[in-house]
Amino acid sequence: MSKALAGKVAAITGGASGIGLASLEAMLAAGARVVLIDRDEAAVMAIAEQQGDAVIPLVIDLLDPQRCAQMVPQILEKAGQLDIFHANAGMYVGGDLVDAEPDAIDRMLNLNINVVMKNVRDVLPHMIARGTGDIIVTSSLAAHFPTPWEPVYASSKWAIDCFVQTTRRQVFKHGIRMGAVSPGPVITALLADWPAEKLQEAKESGSLIEASEVADVILFMLTRPRGVTIRDVVMLPTNFDL
Ligand code: NAD
Predict the structure, then answer these.
(1) CA angle, 53 as apex, 50 and 54 as ends, to 5°?
(2) How high is the ipTM of this complex?
(3) Using a 6 Å cutoff on CB, does residue 39 contact ligand 1?
(4) Does the Cβ of 190 fall within 6 Å of ligand 1?
(5) Which of these is catalytic: 85, 92, 153, 194?
(6) Which Pfam families match (predicted)?
(7) E strands of 122-202, at which residues?
(8) 147 near 207, Cβ under 8 Å?
(9) pLDDT in tens, 48-92
(10) What is the mean pLDDT of the chain?
(11) Quick check: is 153 catalytic?
């Protein structure tokens, strides 16, 4: 494989599992050094040990506001620069609105929206000063085709998609590209929180994909010529019933 990201430093939130881990593996294979940010200390340390010096571990619970605010300074302290930021950490609250616990709603909206906005806000001064940088946000198919069986989750991804589309238009003049990847159901730990009948439907309809397929899309977005921003890749299952 060509080392298209050689010399670059990427940071990935939620990089210890699922889509984040697949993104980390793809970026490592393309020659980047990767700062792995996750709250799961055991998984972070195991991945860092397995992958060697190219992975820089950073254990942070992003829902802790103080730790969240320290993320970018610590990335820069440990890695010296940041070329690619993949805002990926997220959680899922599915099912009917009346069944959603208020605390779970707060935590999910905080992680899926507020934390992403604050992380990107903190990353931008460094990228603006360098006149370059790439920001990828993991959104969801649910942002594009709001799914009535997951109104809380779908709303969070709709909001973060709006954030990407508005912020992208502010930052391009600084040489910064920003885009979202919006997959349908991906085989990761997150699916354990899906309503059982929806998971069964997804399995039967053949719409489940591997996390590595999302990572392939992210790498495609990152390796376009600098004059091109891939605004949003929606990974629509071919048998999706619109
Ligand atoms: P996952 O559960 O496999 O991975 C999520 C990672 O985020 C875990 O390593 C977890 O420890 C970490 N994390 C969770 N809360 C955190 C916090 N407070 N601070 C730091 N790290 C935290 O799930 P995934 O499916 O890979 O999800 C990644 C992203 O993909 C999410 O934004 C999710 O909404 C999105 N997404 C997932 C699917 C899917 O079907 N799996 C589809 C579309 C979008």
Answers:
(1) 90
(2) 0.99
(3) yes
(4) yes
(5) 153
(6) adh_short
(7) 133-138, 176-183
(8) no
(9) 999 999 999 999 999 999 999 999 999 999 999 999 999 999 999
(10) 95
(11) yes
